[in-house]
Amino acid sequence: MILNCLNPKFAKKFVLDYYFEMVQRLKFCVFDIDNDTYDLSDDDFLGELECTLGQIVSNRQMTRSLLLKNKRPAGRGTITICAEEITDTRVANFEVSARKLDKKYLWWSDPFLEFFKQTETGWQLAHRTEVVYNNLNPVWKPFRISLRSLCGGDVEKPIKVDCYDHHVNGSHELIGSFKTTLAEMQTGTHICPAEFECINPKKLKKKNYNNSGVICVKQCQVQKEYTFLDFIMGGCQFNFTIAIDFTGSNGDPRNPQSLHYINPEGYNEYVTAIWAVGNVIQDYDSDQMFPVFGFGAQVPPAWQVSHEFPVNFNPSNPFCAGIDGVVNAYCQCLPQIKLWGPTNFSPIINHVACFARQALRQNVAAQYFVLLIITDGVITDMDQTRAAIVEASRLPMSIIIVGVGMADFSAMEFLDSDDRLLRSPNGDVASRDIVQFVPFRQFHGNSLALAQSVLAELPDQVASFFNAYKLKPPNTLSVPEPT
After folding, report:
1. 82 and 60 in contact (C-beta within 8 Å)?
2. Would you say residue 352 has pLDDT above 90?
3. What is the number of other CB atoms lying within 10 angstroms of the CB of residue 281?
4. Model-level pTM?
5. What is the radius of gyration, based on Cα positions, of the chain?
6. HSE of 98, CA atoms in CB hemisphere, 13 A
7. Residue 299, CB half-sphere, CA atoms under 13 Å: how many?
8. Cβ contacts of 265 within 8 Å, gap of 6 or more
9. How many helices (H) and strands (E) does the chain have?
10. Is beta strand 173-181 parallel, antiparallel or unpaired with respect to 194-197?
11. Please, are residues 422 and 458 in contact by the beta-carbon 8 Å criterion?
12. Strands, E, within 129-207: which ranges?
């Protein structure tokens, strides 16, 4: 409470957990308090603001007019809300080698390292390197570990490193271990590495035992990475494109059995998916204008099959105003087209990729593109789609696929390469996983769960892409420089 002030600046900070994939609604109410009671019913109501946490973080600092209960302006009063992220986003970049490790099988070992964080309950695994086969003087690939995982952000906190000989059956044999701190490892350079003796406890009593090898830390460089919120608060905009499947397998929209049949409440699975994903994404798109395309239908006036037509039939301006406008354009489009086929994804993926490629040339993290494809069936142009996705993986772009109906979606799950990166037919490997697929039937009409499932991976995809390309948020003055 601030006394006798018409322009108060409140010092109280509210700490909230932020979830990109959810619409987190907030209400701020302002009162004039003239007594010592906690009951606000006897105090003067000055106005309120309803918004989402997404709107606040996408603006970083947001000023809006206060409204009365009837939604009319509460005089000239305004409220300004600021947001900042409170988390340690530092990572440690390592280059590590070893020399003269013990032989564990005849004349060789297959060594790998494990880094452990000290916790109240014991040692917790933070990172495991790859295995270097048949080598007593291994050089591991450069790797990174977040400071939260490695030492809780405390550079003087003990860290344990174990060196193992890899066994295929999982019964790995300890070569040796040592304890150190991040501060000690940071002293290492390529010219003068920080060296640590690997000690095997079972060999300590042996005569003339010195060590089981030496681990050399050639680089341990700590840097702060930009987070997803850094990019959003720094002015990065989402460009949300929707692609709708109008192939004949959906069924006649006039038939209640059709996936495109709109029930008396104005819904079908396509509309529900649009609302579920769009409700979250729209808070991060400043102009609220969304391009919407259809594919697999015969369109007027020539009635040729198109795999990339604007549902508002305006090629020069395929944008719809808000998610309401998207749904209205979809509903108005249905009676004007003939559902046909085949089901081709590559044209619309390449269309969005073209704009993402142009954005990448700006050399700043100003735009990220999200393509939502809603479909009922099996992809016809699988090879071309794989090639398009692999190419798009190198662009600021993600693809969300929602499968509606009861079709076999195993091909879609193949594109959502969670286990291994997708390959194009010519063997080219995707640089990252950018596809998230979910079958609508899995959520039984629960649009909140649907949105959370398909959007949960997006923040990491955005941050990892821009950090990998060393692209900064456009408004770097409002975001601290990583050091």
Report:
1. yes
2. yes
3. 22
4. 0.72
5. 28
6. 34
7. 18
8. none
9. 11, 22
10. unpaired
11. no
12. 143-146, 158-165, 173-181, 194-197
